[in-house]
Each structure stands twice: as structure tokens, then as C-alpha cells.
Design brief:
Keywords: DNA-binding, Nucleus, Stress response. Its main location: nucleus. InterPro entries: HSF_DNA-bd, WH-like_DNA-bd_sf, WH_DNA-bd_sf. Belongs to the HSF family. It holds the Pfam family HSF_DNA-bind. The protein has a single domain, classed as Arc Repressor Mutant, subunit A (Orthogonal Bundle). The chain has helices at about 5-20, 45-55, 65, 90-95; strands at about 30, 40, 70-75, 75-80. The chain is globular, with a radius of gyration of 13 Å. Helix 1 (about 5-20) packs across helix 2. The chain is built from four helices and four strands. The longest helix has 17 residues, at about 5-20. The chain is α+β, with helices and mostly antiparallel strands and about 100 residues long. It has a four-stranded antiparallel sheet with strand order 1-2-4-3, covered by helices on one side.
């Protein structure tokens, strides 16, 4: 049985996460923050139980931190940011290609 490499696992997670945040149909639950440098999880419980498990393959929002994201708590919602994980750009792929993700 072939298992994905660490790099392939990171790529798959980032692509799924990016697609989820980018999807306008999920904006009431998770969306880009103004400026597009971070994303906001407006409804953390709904995001974890409904979206993350189905679309990203995880059930815990803290998993983002293990991929180099910083978490900011602000009231009922959570915000996550990570260098180069930004709206409208896939520049994180460039960092993966040269082996510098997530640091």
C-alpha cells in the first residue's frame, strides 16, 4: 500500500483548506477576513462538524496550527493566519516547492 509523503499530505490539506475558505457558499461559516491575509471561522462548531470533516478531512480547528497557522480568538469567532496563505493567490505552493512550508 502506498502512503502519501509528508509533502503530499501538506499539499492536500492546504489545497482543501484554501478551497473551503475561497468557496462563497461557506461564507457565513468560514471566509476570508477583510484584506484577505487571514480567514475567519464565524461558527467554529458548525465548521468543525459540518465542513471540516466533509471537505478537509479533519474535525478539529486546532489542526491548522500544526500546519503553521497562528490562531487568534476574537469573541465567538476564530481567525487563522499563515504567511502566504492569502486570498486570490496560491503562493503557498511556491513555498512548498522550495521546501520552506510552514516556516
Amino acid at each position: 500500500m502506498d502512503y502519501p509523503t509528508v509533502r503530499e499530505s501538506i499539499e492536500a490539506f492546504l489545497k482543501k483548506a484554501y478551497d473551503l475558505v475561497e468557496d462563497p457558499s461557506t461564507d457565513k461559516i468560514i471566509s476570508w477576513a477583510p484584506g484577505g491575509k487571514r480567514f475567519v471561522v464565524w461558527k467554529p462548531l458548525k465548521c468543525s462538524t459540518d465542513l471540516l470533516s466533509q471537505r478537509v478531512g479533519i474535525t478539529n480547528l486546532s489542526t491548522f496550527q500544526s500546519y503553521g497557522f497562528s490562531k487568534i480568538c476574537s469573541g465567538q469567532q476564530l481567525e487563522f493566519l499563515c504567511k502566504d496563505f492569502e486570498k486570490g493567490t496560491l503562493s503557498f505552493w511556491r513555498r512548498l516547492a522550495i521546501g520552506t512550508w510552514p516556516f
